[in-house]
Design a protein that fits this description.
alpha+beta, elongated, 76 residues, two-stranded antiparallel ribbon
Amino acid sequence: MFVFFHDASPKLLYLVPAEPTHMTDPLVVDGLVDFLAGNPVFVGLLVALLLFVFFGYLLVRRTLLGLSEGYDEARR
């Protein structure tokens, strides 16, 4: 991957290789853990949002399967 490097002159841009960063880098994981441990309100909102999406999916799935089953029984 390459990034643009801006020289002192405003008209010169150089394409230089970027330093690779990996999400599995221990410093990234430690930073993420520190952020989540330091913000319990954010973690609570994130968990609530994930639960809302999961149960919303289950509700829509149950509704559509019941609708499909009702159409199948009506055809018989």
